[in-house]
Amino acid sequence: MRRATAVAHANIALVKYWGKRDEALLLPESPSLSIALDRLFTTTTVELGVPSDSLVLDGRAAGEGELRRARFLLDAAGIGEGARIESRNSFPTAAGLASSASGFAALAVAACAAAGQKHTSRELSALARRGSGSAARSVPGGWAVWEDEFAEEVAPPGHLPIRAVIALCGEGKKDVGSRDGMKRSQDTSPYHAAFIAQCRRDYLEARALLRDRNLSALGALAESNALRMHADALAANPPILYWEPPTVSCLQALRRLRDGGLGAWATIDAGPHVVALCAPEDAPRVESTLRAIAGVRDVLVCAPAGGARVVEGDR
Amino acid sequence: MRRATAVAHANIALVKYWGKRDEALLLPESPSLSIALDRLFTTTTVELGVPSDSLVLDGRAAGEGELRRARFLLDAAGIGEGARIESRNSFPTAAGLASSASGFAALAVAACAAAGQKHTSRELSALARRGSGSAARSVPGGWAVWEDEFAEEVAPPGHLPIRAVIALCGEGKKDVGSRDGMKRSQDTSPYHAAFIAQCRRDYLEARALLRDRNLSALGALAESNALRMHADALAANPPILYWEPPTVSCLQALRRLRDGGLGAWATIDAGPHVVALCAPEDAPRVESTLRAIAGVRDVLVCAPAGGARVVEGDR
Q: What pLDDT, on the 0 to 100 scale, is given for residue A259?
């Protein structure tokens, strides 16, 4: 029996991934840019050579669908033998935070380590992608870009001092999962083609702003990009509304903070939670502002993190 | 001194007007379809032949800008003499309900009556349009369509039994007025062209559904059209967010009602208030559902109304 444990961080995209050019291969329609988040991570242990597959998520046996997705990734890695997988998130489970990115990145890295496979970061990123598109970005970590088969780090975590202040604005599973939501937007939203074209422009601009460490312009671009993604989903048929009432309150609160001279901008993944991007020194005020909003269940302050790594293994 | 009083109802568009093809003439980019609302009306008295213009809105002297817009309409009617205008809304003032539609329709009708001008409904509609585009639809009332210089009634109020249950989801003036909001969407939203193209398709479909008295399909179309209008505004630069937290709660509540088998669909003008469209027999349950939502300040149930008319005059 071979065994390895890996850790990978969730990531939040400043230029979003919302549409696939290849459904089977999970290749994106447009390039995305993300940062890995230090407080949101998954720790996954894989033991190979057991009689049958099993998957435990946060102490509970996972459902059939989750086990099937994990097996699909193992097969893609050429690992045919039985695997016992145990995975734990550092953050509230089923709170609607993107755990598939950190989850599949950690699984890819742990499984390959347990199997004794030597891979480059690019290869591991491409493998994680087969589990969940955004997982490709959690393998390199830091400031990551993803355009084709794999994601890469374009700047280390400390390149631009920033905090991601996450306001939890809802609970429970969302009505429409990310995979279905992006498919429905792609298939039925009259705005989707314009969104993808905009993402290509935003991506190039975001890369330049990141290089120049221009937080305020990058923040404004991220907010605009995220709202356009939600607008694309809202325009789908039937409409997709990921927001909860406090989502709107948080957006209004950040606008008021900016009107008062404090730079904080929102990004929102396919869910209700608002992630406020700001300078490290402004994070305490952003945190207390968001925490005071009715309906906000908790607030987590994250700094940029590094990539997925093996933390324990037989080899 | 000549004097007349007119009444006109506000209207809510099921296929929205959101963009001008002629800024000066207030001609729309795409056709719209609306119903007049019985409980929302403006009563306006115009006295001509006074030494100077004055405008009293709900008992308070109006500002310079409002007086200038009224004078612009009077000039367009060829009325050069001084006018004393007194206007009163049946509904909460400055609550963000579209009072410009009923206000300018009532003003056009009252001023022309006071001046002794004989006009067709089409001419009065075209005149009201010069004050505010959507006022064109409040002149004919009923189920009205507006595509070019004037709006016309395409079906009488009773053609399709319906109620508009209005949930007041905010207070005070909105940050971005309708005129500026549609201009900014037109100038900066990458989705605007697609929205206008969609409105043209929606309009044709809505006309057919109205003819067939198909409330459920018309309601679903209206909700989709309204969300796409808000998505267009959200995609503008800088983004325009008209919603308040209870706006989201109302949208979610209507979706839950539909999941439970009750047909009620939302439309939202350029503001936070949700207008639920439903069959008359379902209005009590929709009203009580929306009234129970945190942050909803009041709920008004409206039936379709007729057009603008003179209610008192010297001639």
A: 97
